[in-house]
Design brief:
Rossmann fold, alpha/beta, five-stranded parallel β-sheet, Helicase, Ruva Protein, domain 3
Protein backbone atom coordinates (compact mmCIF):
# COMPACT_ATOMS: atom_id res chain seq x y z
CA UNK A 1 0.00 0.00 0.00
CA UNK A 2 1.44 3.42 -0.89
CA UNK A 3 0.32 7.02 -1.00
CA UNK A 4 -2.29 7.53 -3.69
CA UNK A 5 -2.88 10.66 -5.84
CA UNK A 6 -6.08 11.64 -4.00
CA UNK A 7 -3.93 12.19 -0.90
CA UNK A 8 -1.98 15.01 -2.59
CA UNK A 9 -2.24 18.15 -0.47
CA UNK A 10 -3.72 16.30 2.51
CA UNK A 11 -2.61 18.17 5.67
CA UNK A 12 -0.50 16.21 8.18
CA UNK A 13 0.98 17.53 11.42
CA UNK A 14 4.37 16.12 12.48
CA UNK A 15 5.49 16.68 16.09
CA UNK A 16 9.06 16.07 17.30
CA UNK A 17 11.48 18.12 19.41
CA UNK A 18 14.47 16.85 17.41
CA UNK A 19 14.85 19.41 14.62
CA UNK A 20 16.86 17.03 12.39
CA UNK A 21 14.29 14.21 12.63
CA UNK A 22 11.47 16.70 12.15
CA UNK A 23 13.10 18.08 8.98
CA UNK A 24 13.72 14.58 7.62
CA UNK A 25 10.16 13.37 8.26
CA UNK A 26 8.68 16.53 6.74
CA UNK A 27 10.87 16.18 3.64
CA UNK A 28 9.90 12.54 3.08
CA UNK A 29 6.17 13.20 3.52
CA UNK A 30 6.23 16.30 1.29
CA UNK A 31 7.90 14.18 -1.37
CA UNK A 32 4.73 12.06 -1.37
CA UNK A 33 2.56 15.15 -1.90
CA UNK A 34 1.30 15.69 1.62
CA UNK A 35 0.94 19.22 3.00
CA UNK A 36 3.10 19.20 6.13
CA UNK A 37 3.02 21.43 9.20
CA UNK A 38 5.41 20.86 12.09
CA UNK A 39 5.59 21.46 15.83
CA UNK A 40 8.31 20.88 18.40
CA UNK A 41 6.05 20.57 21.46
CA UNK A 42 2.58 19.40 22.43
CA UNK A 43 1.55 22.98 23.20
CA UNK A 44 2.57 24.19 19.73
CA UNK A 45 0.85 21.18 18.17
CA UNK A 46 -2.45 21.99 19.89
CA UNK A 47 -2.31 25.56 18.61
CA UNK A 48 -1.69 24.36 15.05
CA UNK A 49 -4.55 21.88 15.33
CA UNK A 50 -6.87 24.66 16.51
CA UNK A 51 -5.87 27.02 13.69
CA UNK A 52 -5.66 24.54 10.80
CA UNK A 53 -6.67 20.98 11.74
CA UNK A 54 -4.74 18.20 9.96
CA UNK A 55 -6.15 14.89 8.79
CA UNK A 56 -3.47 12.89 10.68
CA UNK A 57 -1.04 13.66 13.52
CA UNK A 58 2.35 11.91 13.65
CA UNK A 59 4.04 12.55 17.01
CA UNK A 60 7.06 11.41 18.91
CA UNK A 61 6.22 10.18 22.41
CA UNK A 62 9.11 12.00 24.09
CA UNK A 63 8.45 15.74 23.96
CA UNK A 64 9.38 18.60 26.31
CA UNK A 65 6.68 19.44 28.84
CA UNK A 66 3.63 17.42 27.94
CA UNK A 67 4.68 14.26 26.12
CA UNK A 68 3.13 12.66 23.04
CA UNK A 69 0.81 10.50 25.14
CA UNK A 70 -0.59 13.60 26.87
CA UNK A 71 -0.99 15.24 23.45
CA UNK A 72 -2.92 12.19 22.27
CA UNK A 73 -5.21 12.34 25.32
CA UNK A 74 -5.97 16.01 24.62
CA UNK A 75 -6.73 15.26 20.96
CA UNK A 76 -8.88 12.28 21.95
CA UNK A 77 -11.09 14.59 24.03
CA UNK A 78 -11.30 17.58 21.70
CA UNK A 79 -11.12 15.86 18.29
CA UNK A 80 -11.93 12.18 18.72
CA UNK A 81 -12.03 11.54 14.96
CA UNK A 82 -8.44 12.73 14.34
CA UNK A 83 -6.03 9.75 13.92
CA UNK A 84 -2.80 9.93 15.94
CA UNK A 85 0.29 7.84 15.09
CA UNK A 86 2.96 7.70 17.82
CA UNK A 87 6.68 7.24 17.23
CA UNK A 88 8.26 5.47 20.21
CA UNK A 89 11.62 4.41 21.54
CA UNK A 90 11.96 0.87 22.91
CA UNK A 91 11.50 2.01 26.51
CA UNK A 92 8.08 3.55 25.83
CA UNK A 93 6.57 0.62 23.91
CA UNK A 94 4.36 -0.50 26.87
CA UNK A 95 2.94 3.04 27.13
CA UNK A 96 2.25 3.07 23.39
CA UNK A 97 0.50 -0.28 23.53
CA UNK A 98 -1.70 1.01 26.36
CA UNK A 99 -2.44 4.15 24.33
CA UNK A 100 -3.52 1.95 21.41
CA UNK A 101 -6.13 0.35 23.67
CA UNK A 102 -7.44 3.85 24.45
CA UNK A 103 -7.78 4.84 20.80
CA UNK A 104 -4.40 5.90 19.38
CA UNK A 105 -4.40 4.80 15.74
CA UNK A 106 -1.01 3.11 15.87
CA UNK A 107 2.62 3.35 16.85
CA UNK A 108 5.98 2.74 15.22
CA UNK A 109 9.19 1.85 17.03
CA UNK A 110 12.31 3.85 16.21
CA UNK A 111 14.16 3.35 13.95
CA UNK A 112 11.38 2.68 11.45
CA UNK A 113 11.08 2.29 7.69
CA UNK A 114 9.58 5.42 6.14
CA UNK A 115 7.53 3.22 3.79
CA UNK A 116 5.86 1.63 6.83
CA UNK A 117 4.97 5.09 8.11
CA UNK A 118 3.46 6.00 4.74
CA UNK A 119 1.35 2.84 4.79
CA UNK A 120 0.16 3.63 8.31
CA UNK A 121 -0.79 7.18 7.26
CA UNK A 122 -2.67 5.89 4.20
CA UNK A 123 -4.61 3.49 6.39
CA UNK A 124 -5.44 6.25 8.88
CA UNK A 125 -6.72 8.44 6.05
CA UNK A 126 -8.89 5.61 4.71
CA UNK A 127 -10.41 4.91 8.12
CA UNK A 128 -11.13 8.59 8.86
CA UNK A 129 -12.60 9.09 5.37
CA UNK A 130 -14.87 6.08 5.87
CA UNK A 131 -16.10 7.57 9.13
CA UNK A 132 -16.88 10.87 7.44
CA UNK A 133 -18.67 9.11 4.60
CA UNK A 134 -20.96 7.35 7.07
CA UNK A 135 -22.43 10.76 7.88
CA UNK A 136 -23.50 11.16 4.27
CA UNK A 137 -25.91 8.25 3.80
CA UNK A 138 -29.02 9.65 2.12
CA UNK A 139 -32.38 9.76 3.87
CA UNK A 140 -35.40 8.57 1.88
CA UNK A 141 -36.43 11.40 -0.41
CA UNK A 142 -33.75 13.77 0.93
CA UNK A 143 -30.59 15.04 -0.68
CA UNK A 144 -27.73 12.53 -0.69
CA UNK A 145 -24.03 12.86 -0.04
CA UNK A 146 -23.08 16.07 1.75
CA UNK A 147 -25.36 18.35 -0.26
CA UNK A 148 -27.99 18.50 2.47
CA UNK A 149 -25.61 20.24 4.89
CA UNK A 150 -23.76 22.29 2.26
CA UNK A 151 -24.39 25.54 4.17
CA UNK A 152 -22.95 24.20 7.43
CA UNK A 153 -19.19 24.67 7.34
CA UNK A 154 -17.30 22.60 9.90
CA UNK A 155 -14.47 20.24 10.64
CA UNK A 156 -14.81 20.06 14.45
CA UNK A 157 -15.75 16.85 16.19
CA UNK A 158 -18.50 18.73 18.05
CA UNK A 159 -20.25 19.72 14.82
CA UNK A 160 -19.58 16.35 13.18
CA UNK A 161 -21.38 14.68 16.07
CA UNK A 162 -24.32 17.09 15.70
CA UNK A 163 -24.54 16.50 11.94
CA UNK A 164 -24.53 12.75 12.57
CA UNK A 165 -27.47 13.18 14.97
CA UNK A 166 -29.30 15.37 12.45
CA UNK A 167 -28.91 12.76 9.72
CA UNK A 168 -30.53 10.14 11.95
CA UNK A 169 -33.51 12.25 13.07
CA UNK A 170 -34.13 14.00 9.73
CA UNK A 171 -35.57 10.83 8.17
CA UNK A 172 -38.43 10.77 10.68
CA UNK A 173 -41.30 13.24 10.99
CA UNK A 174 -40.60 13.92 14.66
CA UNK A 175 -40.84 17.52 15.84
CA UNK A 176 -37.39 18.93 16.62
CA UNK A 177 -36.47 21.72 19.03
CA UNK A 178 -33.19 23.44 18.14
CA UNK A 179 -31.49 25.19 21.04
CA UNK A 180 -28.66 27.67 20.77
CA UNK A 181 -27.56 31.23 21.35
CA UNK A 182 -28.37 34.01 18.90
CA UNK A 183 -26.08 33.83 15.89
CA UNK A 184 -25.23 30.12 16.12
CA UNK A 185 -27.14 29.26 12.93
CA UNK A 186 -30.42 27.71 14.06
CA UNK A 187 -32.28 28.47 10.82
CA UNK A 188 -29.35 27.18 8.75
CA UNK A 189 -29.56 23.89 10.67
CA UNK A 190 -33.35 23.78 10.23
CA UNK A 191 -32.98 24.14 6.45
CA UNK A 192 -30.41 21.33 6.45
CA UNK A 193 -32.83 19.08 8.35
CA UNK A 194 -35.49 19.83 5.74
CA UNK A 195 -33.13 19.02 2.86
CA UNK A 196 -32.18 15.71 4.49
CA UNK A 197 -35.80 14.68 5.08
CA UNK A 198 -38.33 12.93 2.86
CA UNK A 199 -40.05 16.34 2.60
CA UNK A 200 -37.06 17.89 0.80
CA UNK A 201 -39.10 18.44 -2.39
CA UNK A 202 -41.81 20.24 -0.39
CA UNK A 203 -41.73 23.86 0.81
CA UNK A 204 -39.63 25.14 3.69
CA UNK A 205 -41.32 28.06 5.44
CA UNK A 206 -39.75 30.03 8.31
CA UNK A 207 -41.09 32.67 10.68
CA UNK A 208 -39.59 34.48 13.67
CA UNK A 209 -42.27 34.38 16.37
CA UNK A 210 -40.60 37.20 18.30
CA UNK A 211 -40.47 39.62 15.38
CA UNK A 212 -44.23 39.83 14.64
CA UNK A 213 -46.76 41.63 16.87
CA UNK A 214 -49.08 39.29 18.77
CA UNK A 215 -52.21 40.58 17.00
CA UNK A 216 -50.72 39.69 13.59
CA UNK A 217 -48.95 36.44 14.46
CA UNK A 218 -52.15 34.35 14.55
CA UNK A 219 -53.11 35.50 11.07
CA UNK A 220 -49.58 34.86 9.80
CA UNK A 221 -49.58 31.30 11.12
CA UNK A 222 -53.15 30.20 10.45
CA UNK A 223 -54.42 32.62 7.79
CA UNK A 224 -57.69 34.55 7.79
CA UNK A 225 -60.84 34.93 5.72
CA UNK A 226 -62.04 38.14 4.13
CA UNK A 227 -63.63 40.44 6.68
CA UNK A 228 -62.33 38.50 9.69
CA UNK A 229 -61.06 41.75 11.23
CA UNK A 230 -60.57 45.39 10.30
CA UNK A 231 -58.21 45.55 7.37
CA UNK A 232 -58.80 41.94 6.22
CA UNK A 233 -59.82 42.96 2.71
CA UNK A 234 -58.94 39.56 1.21
CA UNK A 235 -58.71 35.95 2.28
CA UNK A 236 -55.13 34.97 3.07
CA UNK A 237 -53.66 31.53 3.63
CA UNK A 238 -51.38 31.10 6.64
CA UNK A 239 -47.89 29.71 6.88
CA UNK A 240 -49.16 26.29 7.98
CA UNK A 241 -51.07 25.97 4.72
CA UNK A 242 -48.09 27.37 2.75
CA UNK A 243 -45.84 24.70 4.28
CA UNK A 244 -48.28 21.86 3.54
CA UNK A 245 -46.32 18.79 2.47
CA UNK A 246 -43.09 20.36 3.72
CA UNK A 247 -41.52 21.88 6.83
CA UNK A 248 -42.52 24.84 8.99
CA UNK A 249 -39.77 26.41 11.10
CA UNK A 250 -40.88 28.50 14.08
CA UNK A 251 -37.87 30.51 15.23
CA UNK A 252 -37.82 31.99 18.74
CA UNK A 253 -40.76 29.83 19.77
CA UNK A 254 -40.13 30.86 23.37
CA UNK A 255 -41.44 34.35 22.53
CA UNK A 256 -44.85 33.08 21.37
CA UNK A 257 -47.74 34.52 23.44
CA UNK A 258 -49.60 32.05 25.68
CA UNK A 259 -52.89 32.48 23.82
CA UNK A 260 -51.27 31.39 20.57
CA UNK A 261 -49.47 28.53 22.30
CA UNK A 262 -52.91 27.00 23.01
CA UNK A 263 -53.91 27.26 19.34
CA UNK A 264 -50.58 25.87 18.15
CA UNK A 265 -50.97 22.89 20.48
CA UNK A 266 -54.39 22.19 18.98
CA UNK A 267 -52.94 22.22 15.45
CA UNK A 268 -50.21 19.76 16.46
CA UNK A 269 -52.73 17.45 18.13
CA UNK A 270 -55.43 17.51 15.46
CA UNK A 271 -53.35 18.27 12.35
CA UNK A 272 -55.94 20.79 11.18
CA UNK A 273 -55.88 24.59 10.94
CA UNK A 274 -58.79 26.97 11.25
CA UNK A 275 -58.09 30.40 9.73
CA UNK A 276 -59.11 33.49 11.71
CA UNK A 277 -62.81 34.14 11.07
CA UNK A 278 -63.40 30.76 9.39
CA UNK A 279 -65.99 28.20 10.49
CA UNK A 280 -64.28 25.17 8.93
CA UNK A 281 -60.89 23.68 9.73
CA UNK A 282 -58.48 22.60 7.00
CA UNK A 283 -56.19 19.55 7.25
CA UNK A 284 -52.45 20.19 7.05
CA UNK A 285 -49.48 17.87 6.65
CA UNK A 286 -46.50 19.73 8.09
CA UNK A 287 -43.28 18.71 9.83
CA UNK A 288 -42.62 21.24 12.61
CA UNK A 289 -39.18 22.47 13.58
CA UNK A 290 -38.76 25.12 16.25
CA UNK A 291 -35.87 27.00 17.82
CA UNK A 292 -35.15 29.11 20.85
CA UNK A 293 -32.33 30.84 22.66
CA UNK A 294 -34.46 31.00 25.83
CA UNK A 295 -34.41 28.63 28.78
CA UNK A 296 -37.82 27.00 28.26
CA UNK A 297 -37.60 25.09 31.55
CA UNK A 298 -37.40 28.41 33.38
CA UNK A 299 -40.18 29.84 31.20
CA UNK A 300 -42.43 26.89 32.10
CA UNK A 301 -41.66 27.33 35.80
CA UNK A 302 -42.68 30.98 35.50
CA UNK A 303 -45.91 30.12 33.66
CA UNK A 304 -44.72 31.75 30.43
CA UNK A 305 -44.61 28.58 28.33
CA UNK A 306 -47.05 25.66 28.28
CA UNK A 307 -45.62 22.36 29.43
CA UNK A 308 -47.91 20.31 27.14
CA UNK A 309 -46.75 22.31 24.11
CA UNK A 310 -43.13 21.95 25.16
CA UNK A 311 -43.33 18.16 25.08
CA UNK A 312 -44.99 18.29 21.64
CA UNK A 313 -42.18 20.44 20.29
CA UNK A 314 -39.27 18.75 22.08
CA UNK A 315 -39.67 15.21 20.73
CA UNK A 316 -36.03 15.49 19.65
CA UNK A 317 -33.70 18.18 21.00
CA UNK A 318 -30.60 19.42 19.16
CA UNK A 319 -28.18 21.97 20.61
CA UNK A 320 -25.94 24.18 18.46
CA UNK A 321 -22.63 24.93 20.21
CA UNK A 322 -21.31 28.45 20.66
CA UNK A 323 -18.59 29.41 18.20
CA UNK A 324 -16.03 29.44 21.01
CA UNK A 325 -16.86 25.76 21.58
CA UNK A 326 -15.92 24.89 17.99
CA UNK A 327 -12.85 27.07 17.46
CA UNK A 328 -11.27 24.67 14.99
CA UNK A 329 -14.09 25.64 12.60
CA UNK A 330 -13.22 29.35 12.65
CA UNK A 331 -10.51 29.33 9.92
CA UNK A 332 -12.75 27.25 7.66
CA UNK A 333 -15.77 29.50 8.29
CA UNK A 334 -13.68 32.62 7.72
CA UNK A 335 -12.42 31.29 4.38
CA UNK A 336 -15.98 30.35 3.41
CA UNK A 337 -17.28 33.82 4.25
CA UNK A 338 -14.44 35.47 2.29
CA UNK A 339 -15.54 33.54 -0.80
CA UNK A 340 -19.15 34.62 -0.23
CA UNK A 341 -18.54 38.34 0.26
CA UNK A 342 -15.39 39.13 -1.79
CA UNK A 343 -17.40 39.26 -5.00
CA UNK A 344 -19.84 41.67 -3.40
CA UNK A 345 -17.04 44.27 -3.17
CA UNK A 346 -15.47 43.36 -6.51
CA UNK A 347 -12.18 42.34 -4.93
CA UNK A 348 -9.83 39.42 -5.44
CA UNK A 349 -9.24 38.29 -1.86
CA UNK A 350 -7.44 35.05 -1.16
CA UNK A 351 -7.86 34.93 2.62
CA UNK A 352 -6.27 36.15 5.85
CA UNK A 353 -2.66 36.62 6.85
CA UNK A 354 -1.43 34.04 9.41
CA UNK A 355 -1.53 36.70 12.18
CA UNK A 356 -5.06 37.74 11.24
CA UNK A 357 -6.21 34.13 11.16
CA UNK A 358 -4.74 33.52 14.59
CA UNK A 359 -6.56 36.59 15.92
CA UNK A 360 -9.84 35.22 14.55
CA UNK A 361 -9.20 31.77 16.01
CA UNK A 362 -8.43 33.09 19.51
CA UNK A 363 -10.93 35.95 19.78
CA UNK A 364 -14.05 35.88 21.95
CA UNK A 365 -17.22 35.51 19.86
CA UNK A 366 -20.24 36.64 21.87
CA UNK A 367 -22.14 37.05 18.60
CA UNK A 368 -21.15 33.58 17.39
CA UNK A 369 -21.11 32.75 13.65
CA UNK A 370 -23.17 35.83 12.77
CA UNK A 371 -20.55 38.06 14.40
CA UNK A 372 -17.75 36.24 12.55
CA UNK A 373 -19.52 36.90 9.25
CA UNK A 374 -19.83 40.57 10.22
CA UNK A 375 -16.09 40.79 10.99
CA UNK A 376 -15.16 39.07 7.72
CA UNK A 377 -17.43 41.37 5.71
CA UNK A 378 -16.00 44.51 7.33
CA UNK A 379 -12.46 43.26 6.67
CA UNK A 380 -13.24 42.44 3.03
CA UNK A 381 -14.80 45.86 2.49
CA UNK A 382 -11.72 47.69 3.79
CA UNK A 383 -8.82 45.58 2.56
CA UNK A 384 -6.64 46.76 -0.32
CA UNK A 385 -4.54 43.60 -0.47
CA UNK A 386 -5.32 39.98 -1.43
CA UNK A 387 -4.47 38.84 2.11
CA UNK A 388 -6.50 40.57 4.83
CA UNK A 389 -4.01 41.94 7.40
CA UNK A 390 -4.17 41.69 11.19
CA UNK A 391 -4.87 45.42 11.57
CA UNK A 392 -8.21 45.18 9.73
CA UNK A 393 -9.30 42.16 11.75
CA UNK A 394 -8.42 43.96 14.97
CA UNK A 395 -10.36 47.02 13.80
CA UNK A 396 -13.42 44.92 12.93
CA UNK A 397 -13.26 43.08 16.25
CA UNK A 398 -13.28 46.40 18.12
CA UNK A 399 -16.41 47.56 16.32
CA UNK A 400 -19.52 46.27 18.12
CA UNK A 401 -21.75 44.25 15.83
CA UNK A 402 -25.14 45.83 15.42
CA UNK A 403 -27.67 43.34 16.73
CA UNK A 404 -31.23 43.87 17.87
CA UNK A 405 -30.94 42.32 21.33
CA UNK A 406 -33.70 42.11 23.88
CA UNK A 407 -32.96 43.40 27.37
CA UNK A 408 -32.67 39.82 28.67
CA UNK A 409 -30.23 38.83 25.89
CA UNK A 410 -28.08 41.90 26.45
CA UNK A 411 -28.02 41.32 30.21
CA UNK A 412 -27.06 37.65 29.82
CA UNK A 413 -24.31 38.50 27.35
CA UNK A 414 -22.90 41.17 29.66
CA UNK A 415 -23.04 38.85 32.70
CA UNK A 416 -21.22 36.02 30.94
CA UNK A 417 -18.49 38.28 29.54
CA UNK A 418 -18.11 40.05 32.90
CA UNK A 419 -17.68 36.74 34.73
CA UNK A 420 -15.14 35.51 32.17
CA UNK A 421 -13.08 38.69 32.51
CA UNK A 422 -13.21 38.50 36.31
CA UNK A 423 -12.01 34.90 36.34
CA UNK A 424 -9.22 35.76 33.90
CA UNK A 425 -8.18 38.66 36.11
CA UNK A 426 -8.09 36.50 39.26
CA UNK A 427 -6.71 33.33 37.58
CA UNK A 428 -9.83 31.42 38.56
CA UNK A 429 -9.77 32.43 42.25
CA UNK A 430 -13.47 32.51 43.14
CA UNK A 431 -12.99 34.28 46.47
CA UNK A 432 -11.10 37.16 44.81
CA UNK A 433 -13.55 37.34 41.90
CA UNK A 434 -16.57 37.39 44.23
CA UNK A 435 -14.95 40.14 46.31
CA UNK A 436 -14.35 42.32 43.23
CA UNK A 437 -17.94 41.71 42.10
CA UNK A 438 -19.19 42.51 45.63
CA UNK A 439 -21.14 39.27 45.78
CA UNK A 440 -20.98 36.43 48.27
CA UNK A 441 -19.34 33.21 47.13
CA UNK A 442 -22.60 31.22 47.09
CA UNK A 443 -24.26 33.72 44.78
CA UNK A 444 -21.12 33.93 42.64
CA UNK A 445 -20.96 30.14 42.23
CA UNK A 446 -24.63 30.20 41.22
CA UNK A 447 -23.82 32.73 38.49
CA UNK A 448 -20.92 30.60 37.26
CA UNK A 449 -23.19 27.55 37.10
CA UNK A 450 -25.77 29.55 35.15
CA UNK A 451 -23.23 30.14 32.37
CA UNK A 452 -21.41 26.77 32.59
CA UNK A 453 -18.20 28.44 33.75
CA UNK A 454 -15.67 26.42 35.73
CA UNK A 455 -12.96 28.27 37.74
CA UNK A 456 -10.42 25.58 36.80
CA UNK A 457 -10.66 26.74 33.18
CA UNK A 458 -8.86 29.96 34.17
CA UNK A 459 -6.12 28.57 36.39
CA UNK A 460 -3.56 27.91 33.71
CA UNK A 461 -3.43 24.17 34.36
CA UNK A 462 -2.55 24.49 38.05
CA UNK A 463 -4.03 22.02 40.47
CA UNK A 464 -6.56 23.09 43.08
Amino acid sequence: MSSVPENLGVPILVVDDDEDILRLLAMRLRARGFKISTATSAEEALVRIAVEPPRVVVSDVRLPGRDGLALFEEIRITRPGLPVILLTAHGSIPDAVEATSRGVFGYLTKPFDSQVLLEKIDLALQVSAAGAASLSAGADGGETGEAWHRDIVFRSARMAELISEVRMVAASDASILIRGESGTGKEVLARAIHRASRRAKGPFVAINCGAIPEQLLESELFGHVKGAFTGAANTRIGLFQSANGGTLFLDEIGDMPLALQVKLLRVLQERVVRPVGATQAEPVDVRLLSATHRDLDAAMAQGQFREDLYYRLDVVSLTLPRLEERREDIPLLAAHFVQLVAGKYGKSITGFSPEALEALATSAWPGNVRQLLNVVEQSCALTSTPLIPLSLVQRALRVPTMEALSYVEAKQRFERNYLVQLLKLTDGNVADAARIAERNRTEFYRLLQKYDLTPAMFRGGEAD
